[in-house]
Here is the input.
Amino acid sequence: MENTDNIIREITPLSDRDCFYVVNRRKSEFTYPIHYHEEYELNFVENAPGVRRVVGDSAEIIGDYDLVLITGKNLEHAWEQHDCTSKDIREITIQFAPDLISPQLRNKNQFASIVHMLNRAQCGLSFPLQAVMKVYNQLEKLATEEQGFYAVQDFLSILYELSLFEDARTLSTTSFAKIESVSDSRRVQKVQAYINEHFRKEIRLVTLAEMVGMTPVSFSRFFRLRTGKTLSEYIIDIRLGAASRLLVDSTRTVAEICYDCGFNNLSNFNRMFKRKKGCAPKEFRENYHKKKIII
Here is the structure.
């Protein structure tokens, strides 16, 4: 274990010779700080209402069941005690290597839904209660059996069942997670690439519409249908994600970050940040710096 500038570096338990690593815990509280690692992680939490789950720049209070998949390289995450009073918390954590599904298998039709899910989970993916109940017994079995060949089959089966739930929610913004948005539409991809490159400046609706050969009204409707967000909401999320990343990774002032990320009014930035993230920019930075480690 190495400690440099208040950052602890640990070697992960997953070995190069294992497909995955399972930890099955019962505990009375969460004490592990915000951390990140290269391995993919599926994390199940039971009987811990009031716990705050942090994934990237997303912070949410969980209920009785929580199931999250994280495949983003070095995407910060943690489950914090917050208002949870339960003394009988169940947690099952499964870590697996990014190459568990080889490049050859990723190109096969039978793995298409799993690959799509793994791509979405680069920002963290929260599964609905229906999905949790679907794989609950399989998770229980995997956590208590020997990690042999059939356990690998069982784990792949869990991933497949979860991949069928398209209503799983992404958590962190793409700009915080440092990944590019992936869309099935080439026109949306073109617009997203432009926004990612130019979000620090003013972005005009008419410019984006002309890029894809549509009228502004038609493009606005098309973009919302394809992304689930209005153009304004999408751009704000990109800017806030970039601002959150700078708050974590730099020592720039909040005002400098505000203007560097495309906002032109500090008070509006603070208000918008608090509404979206649940805390002020300064508090967001302090929370990360107090609790961040690397494993």
Summary: The CA atoms of residues 73 and 192 lie 21 Å apart.
